[in-house]
Design goal:
Layout lengths: L2 E3 L6 E3 L1 E4 L9 H5 L4 H13 L4 E3 L8 H13 L7 E6 L14 H15 L4 E6 L8 H14 L2 E7 L3 H14 L4 E7 L11 H8 L2 E5 L23 H4 L7 H18 L3 H10 L6 E4 L4 H9 L7 H10 L8 H8 L10
Parallel strand pairs: 3-4, 3-10, 4-5, 5-6, 6-7, 7-8, 8-9, 9-10
Antiparallel strand pairs: 1-2
Helix pairs in contact: 2-3, 2-11, 3-4, 4-5, 9-10, 9-12
């Protein structure tokens, strides 16, 4: 297991982060995603930490608080050293039906931090993230609230999830102008079959030196190698069969799977490990969040850290999964090529 700095902080996080979306299994989509209960959660957390993972990501909305509660109890039961773990959670989504039970107002964020700390049985949260964009609450209000939470000691770093490049940049400018705590990380969907992030968000991440936390690296299991075509529902109980998310260009995805199969076969490993190894080879990726419904899945995902793709393989996969050119990207590349290399006088 390798460790990477989270953005411009001095904080090292493991290249794989344990995701907890499969914990709890409350009604609705959560039952389809996963319903691991306490014993299974304890087993996963112990195995992950023993394997070198020091980063765990959850959210208040996962199974409407149950995921946080299960994780908190696992940390307590296992007696893990708090100062050696980086625990991240999030707020934004609906936690109840009241008018202020969602969003990023000072009211909601303060209430949700306290509720998350109670469920997690912790005194502080290492990384507190906005789970999305709130079109009603100004960044000035959200960032002021987050800044106060950092000053209070309840939160140590702040991050954001699922935002457009302009929203990320605007938030950083607000923090700079008002001398508030800045976001240090971006959590976003990114896979070999879904590289849209590279158009606008990745350039911002690189320019502003933010950490990138990748969620759903296997596109909801679509890149696991267990599906043979876009019409294939996969093995019995597969998550994609009940919850077809995230959105994926499936013909493109299966071109990638077809290219990864021989690489996996030659190494006698899963296609999933190749897909994860491709992500881990990207220099702008800080950590890849792996969530599992079984110990076999978790073991297989963690083994991806041992996979070293050859340069030729990465080039092949990059070409097969390449995004179609879009404006202004192709124009920026065309006009910038004259400045790409320093002039040489012969």
């Amino acid at each position: 297991m390798r460790y990477r700095l989270l953005g411009q902080t001095g904080l090292y996080v493991s290249e794989l982060c344990l995701g907890t979306m499969t914990y709890g299994g409350n009604a609705g989509i959560w039952e389809a995603i996963g319903n691991l209960q306490q014993d299974a959660v304890n087993e996963q957390v112990k195995f992950a930490v023993d394997a070198g993972i020091n980063f765990i990501d959850t959210a208040n909305v996962y199974s409407v608080g149950k995921s946080e509660s299960l994780l908190g109890q696992a940390l307590k039961t296992l007696g893990l050293k708090r100062d050696q773990l980086i625990v991240a959670t999030k707020a934004h989504s609906s936690m109840d039906d009241s008018p202020n039970g969602r969003g990023q107002s000072r009211h909601h964020l303060f209430n949700q931090v306290d509720a998350s700390l109670k469920r997690l049985q912790l005194e502080y949260i290492d990384l507190y993230q906005l789970h999305g964009f709130d079109p009603l609450t100004p960044f000035e209000e959200s960032l002021s609230a987050l800044n106060d939470l950092v000053r209070s000691g309840k939160v140590r770093y702040i991050g954001l999830c699922n935002m457009a490049a302009w929203q990320i940049m605007k938030s950083l400018c607000v923090s700079e102008r008002r001398n508030l705590a800045k976001f240090v990380s971006v959590q976003a969907y990114y896979t070999i079959a879904g590289r849209d992030l590279e158009r606008e968000v990745v350039p911002v991440i690189q320019d502003q030196k933010l950490g990138l936390m990748v969620w759903s690296p296997l596109a909801g299991g679509l890149l696991s190698g267990k599906f043979s075509s876009a019409e294939d529902k996969g093995p019995a109980g597969a998550r994609r069969g009940a919850f077809d998310f995230p959105l994926v260009d499936k013909p493109r995805a299966f071109k990638c799977v077809d290219a990864m199969r021989p690489m996996a076969s030659a190494r006698k490993i899963s296609v999933a490990q190749i897909a994860l190894a491709w992500l881990l080879a990207k220099p702008f990726v800080t950590t890849v969040i792996v969530g599992a419904r079984s110990m076999d899945q978790l073991r297989d995902n963690i083994e991806s850290t041992r996979v070293q793709l050859e340069d030729a393989e990465i080039k092949q996969l990059d070409e097969i999964s390449a995004l179609p050119a879009e404006y202004p990207g192709w124009m920026l590349a065309y006009q910038g090529q004259a400045r790409a290399k320093p002039p040489v006088k012969e």
